Amino acid sequence: MAEEALLPAALEVDGADRVPQSHLDLLAKKGFYGFAAPDDLTALDFPSYAAACRAVESLAGGCLATTLVWVQHHGAVSALAKTGNRELRDARLKPLAEGRLRSGVAVTAAVRPGIPMLRAEPVDGGWIFDGAAPWVSGWGMVDTLYIAARDADDVLVMALLDAEEGESVSAGPPARLVAAQASRTVTVRFSRHFVPRERVVQTVPLEAHSKGDPESVRFNGNLALGVAGRAIALMGDDSGALSAQLATARRTLLGAAAEDVPAARAAVSQFAVRAAAALAVHVGGRALLTDAHAQRLTREATFLLAFGSRPAIRTALLKGLGAQERSAGGAGTA
């Protein structure tokens, strides 16, 4: 699918304002919206976690924007599969697993260090969400939003909301991104938005939620491996040692202990930049043209240096690149 459907359209999608509906429909038809669903609700049968990761890598190597929108979906599916809210599970899990309903995700605003950007306040019958959720991808292409807000006791309230604007919900314009512009990534603002108890998937202490973060970080590293792999494939026999280095990076990320995942994730992100740069040099002057895959992959590799990052990943990346954290009085913004 990546080779026959996604890659041939990748440059066109790179310049578009949204991922083609046909791409997402194809993923649904092939069963990929059930990627994280329980066995009885998915047609996919990966022999191992490593094989599942390779599938994500392959899709990202075909079209990063499409994969970015699709991959956001699985947080909702995984959470609903485990929720104690049986009514919500029964109503939404199967349509989500089949791709008849499609979900985005907005968790970062609640789990970021310090004061949460999106706050939860208990009220009769549910919760009030107030604040902003940045980096919501797929707006206008998803039906629901798996979202987290944080209360005064550092408990996350995870809910499944309709992905639509209203009196208390508004979405800004799509961010102007260096890559994956077609993902339609926006900031969604909540103005004392009432979330009924029936739409809450779970409540979980922030500390407990954070213990599962290494697996999310590991999983997202497959996007960088996909970009690196595509750059290497486009070099063909001239890729030299890069193919072996890709295999090593893949094994390291997959096998890293939880405490080593940030460093492994940083390494694959840095490797993607190096592989894309090698392709640009290999192609030569054509890499400067906007209809060349080399410039697209270079921008996508840059995008993935910061996408889904964490402080430990940032520190490892800066160290690997020969730099260091900005001092308190240092210049520059990002």
UniProtKB/TrEMBL annotation:
This is Acyl-CoA dehydrogenase/oxidase N-terminal domain-containing protein. It comes from Streptomonospora alba. Residues 2-99 form the Acyl-CoA dehydrogenase/oxidase N-terminal domain. Pfam families: Acyl-CoA_dh_N (PF02771). It comes from the Bacteria. GO terms for molecular function: acyl-CoA dehydrogenase activity; flavin adenine dinucleotide binding. InterPro entries: Acyl-CoA_Oxase/DH_mid-dom_sf, AcylCoA_DH/ox_N, AcylCoA_DH/ox_N_sf, AcylCoA_DH/oxidase_NM_dom_sf.
